[in-house]
Amino acid sequence: MSTCTTCPYCGVGCGVLAAADGSIQGDPNHPANQGRLCSKGTALGATVGLEGRLLQPQLNGRDVSWDTALHVVATKFAEAIRDHGPDSVAFYLSGQLLTEDYYVANKLIKGYMGTANIDTNSRLCMASSVAGHKRAFGSDTVPGQYADFEQADVVVLVGSNTAWCHPVLFRRIEAAKAARPEMKIVVVDPRRTATCQIADLHLAIQSDGDAALFNGLLTQIKARGLIDQAYVEAHVNGLEEALQAAGTGEGCGLDADQLAQFFDLWCGSEKVVTLYSMGVNQSARGTDKVNAIINCHLATGRIGRAGMGPFSMTGQPNAMGGREVGGLSNMLASHLELDNAAHRDAVQGFWQSPAMPEAPGLKAVDLFRACHTGKIKALWIMSTNPVVSMPEADFVAEAIRAVPFSVGSDLFAATDTMSCVDLVLPAAGWGEKTGTVTNSERCISRQRAFLPTPGAARPDWAITAEVGRRMGWGDAFEYASAADVFREHAALSGVAAALGRDFDISGLQNISDADYDRLEPQVWPIPAQGTAETRFFSNGGFYHADGKAKMLPITPPVLTAPVGDTLLFNTARVRDHWHTMTRTGRAAPLGAHMGEPYLEVHPVDADRFGLGAAALVEVSNPHGRAVLRVLVTDRVQAGTCCAPMHWTAQTAARGRINALVTGNVDPVSGQPALKMAQVVVKPYAVGWYGFAASAAQMQPTRPYAAIARSKTGWRAEVAGHKTPQDWEAEARSVLNLPDGVVSRFDDAASGMVRIAIYDDGALSGAFFAAPGPVGVARAATVDLIGQKVPAVRVLAGVPGADQPSKGAVVCACMDVGRHELQRAIAGGAASLPALMDCTGAGTNCGSCRPELQDLIAKTETQRMAAE
Ligand code: SF4
């Protein structure tokens, strides 16, 4: 028996059919995914076990009752407000929270505690899109729908590795292009990512070159007579000012021919969708970039109609829901404005609340700085891991520890952030709690429980409401259920709609508990009276006072060049992990794709700085330091480097790369420039490298270490400085296997030490160490753990003669490795369908298909070079 729910990861918001036995399928009836799931969604069943779960409140490491925990929270926040004023307290929330959780937290702190010091990790994700929307439209409105990508003639993906970060949307675009090959795809990205596999044109701009590119496009739109005069005259202000500021596109890092190709494509078809994501938003000029893109759509009237429009793709599953309840420090609930007295009065009147802040609160970077300076006396972090995800992450850890009282609500006590707080509260997780989320196309979907709530865990909205009651506001927080909260949220949206705002779901304000349980995915607006269009702005109707949109004059930034011997440091994501891996790190198939943190470095820079392939590199700047594996590749431009952001102190010795990112923020949105640090790179000298596979959980305790789940236990990449005197003791320590019988083989020629440990005749651990990067068949070694196999086979470090090497896993769903794929291609499966048919790779979620195509192309290139 399956339950219809929604994936808890990215902003695509796929529908999932989930069962208590862990079986997971895509929901064929959900409009976002129509049955598809990516590798992360497919592996959800492997993430819901109770291992490591926080099951009881813990105060300073000791279990306490809920009564004690809630009393402590209510008392500490009340004391801080009494002694230091409302602005001495703060909440830091998450786009992982459900709308109901977000609503209650926002109501408690703004309406009752009386401060706007509530911000969220969505500040790191799409705050610049929010700010750009509000500047252009007068409201934070996403005009379009996912169907627009399928109906467009040209899809432009800016700063978005859609193939890895929003895989199901990528699948939809890929399928649309397969059905209509004349459809054109343009990727604008400094890196050559997996998304480029379906691109007709990849524009490798320099970092932050986007504003100059779209400014140049605006000039071309004018030069080619494509301004939609009727639309602009009726609905848009600021055209002339924007045109005067627009240049030619020079300075974005592209040559004239590339610019011309882009201008021809964008201008040549009316049906253009321009999607933008983290590469645009996570910048010190992110809001300007958003407005440079929107300017082009407003000037041409290409907005709000089928197959056209600007489209902000959110990273998180409920970033949009957080925006709808006003979960950012500069917003009010229901897309009302904090700096508008009538809006503040309306919300306060609706809540009948004692307080309402008149000024915006602290945005994320400033919030943690205020923690560090002692301004914040009580801090509540819900469902997020800022010690990994925030810029200047080491500083953020210090800042949290500096707060006199800090509380965290999470699924796990062992996260980098929860280890910094005084009180941890066990929150109900995905599959256990119930509520709603809103995806990037404004579609509200239900998350439903299909598992019992473990231990003493509670939903976040219920925890927050209980604190509100204990602080003396019983009537305002007397919710019986998530449905109760949702009805109030929907009713408040009716108040906002009456004030002329876009967000309106008042048609759901009287929804019964039974109908809430049955609620089908619905795109807002959902007004109480009549029906509404699903797209916005085809006939104007903007939310500035005069009903018109605004085009902004954009001055592109001077592009940052690396100073001296530094490289520009970009941060990114991998295909199979989500944020700080607290969930995806539990699923063995997802750890097989990218098993350790790495730095992509261009071959020119690898030569320049003496970085050998697969060696280790120290990356540093005044903010922090990381040690990563070197991946030499021309996917990044010379002078730049890039690392994924997922690794934590729980999974790697020194892999928290956001410790290197500066807290430089966009002046309008407050979003940090997470993709623009300057770093020094140098070889990280070690005396030995190792690989380990164990049935026991290992810890990242060596100078370099990265651990990952495997299908037979755990796997680890390790390295150390001094060659151990006692290799057996070292192996036992790394493998976390104090007992068992050891077999060992030392290869004098290569210097490699090979150790196998057996427990009752079955292999419990295998350890390989050498003076250089270890060349063993990792997947094959992992497969042997738990088996009664002869030591000679384990210590060989290669698959048996009957089992050719699999290579690094490419297809996580079907467990197909790189070497298997290369053999199949060499054997004639040289097209994507043939390779899928032959190996099974790519036949489930399809997330690996860009890599399959890349392998086919590379093998073909090598074959031609050899001829
Ligand atoms: Fe989840 Fe993948 Fe769908 Fe995103 S694309 S919502 S991660 S299944």
Structure description:
With 867 residues, the protein is α/β, with parallel strands linked by helices. The protein contains 29 helices and 34 strands. It has a 7-stranded mixed sheet with strand order 5-4-16-15-14-6-7, with helices on both faces. It has a 6-stranded mixed beta barrel with strand order 21-25-22-24-23-26. A 6-stranded antiparallel sheet has the order 28-29-27-32-31-30, with helices on both faces. The mean pLDDT is 95. The chain binds iron/sulfur cluster. Iron/sulfur cluster is lined by residues 7, 9-10, 12-14, 33, 37-38, 40-41, 166-168. Residues 7, 9-10, 12-14, 33, 37-38, 40-41, 166-168 line the site of iron/sulfur cluster.
Q: Using the CA coordinates, give the radius of gyration.
A: 27 Å
Task: Please identify the structural class as seen in this structure.
Answer: alpha/beta
Poorly predicted runs of 5 or more residues: none
Annotation, overall tally of beta strands: 34
Assess the beta-strand content as a share of residues: 15-25%
Estimate the helix proportion, in percent: 25-40%
Globular, elongated, flat, extended or rod-shaped: what is the shape? globular
